[in-house]
Design brief:
The chain has helices spanning about 5-20, 25-40, 45-50, 55-70, 75-85, 95. The chain is mainly alpha-helical. It has 2 domains: about 1-50, no CATH class; about 55-104, no CATH class.
Length: about 100
């Protein structure tokens, strides 16, 4: 089997597993990258990790943590309520109506 076909098949299997089971798709993708990279492509673990965007990972973890804190302390709920007030209940107008935050 070619490396391209193994990658496409692995992606499909990853989506099926992540849909059927409560497993994080990112963790599955990381595991499949090592599995396909070592078996089908012949890459070393250092080569596979060398292609991993560490800076992007740290940024995404930080933003996820920030929004987790904002959810727990009520900031997200306040923001949603402020948007609904700004558009006077017309929820479909929220993307356009919440640009004037100086009113709140």
């Amino acid at each position: 089997m070619s490396a391209q076909m193994a990658t496409i098949l692995g992606l499909g299997v990853m989506f099926v597993i992540a849909t059927a089971l409560p497993i994080n798709m990112g963790a599955l993708g990381f595991a499949f990258a090592f599995l396909i990279g070592t078996i089908f492509v012949g890459m070393s673990a250092n080569d596979i990790l060398g292609g991993f965007p560490g800076d992007l990972f740290v940024t995404l973890v930080g933003i996820t943590y920030l929004f987790g804190i904002a959810q727990n302390n009520g900031t997200v709920d306040w923001l949603v309520q402020a948007c609904v007030r700004a558009v006077r209940g017309r929820i479909s107008a929220i993307p356009w109506g919440c640009s004037g935050w100086r009113r709140f």
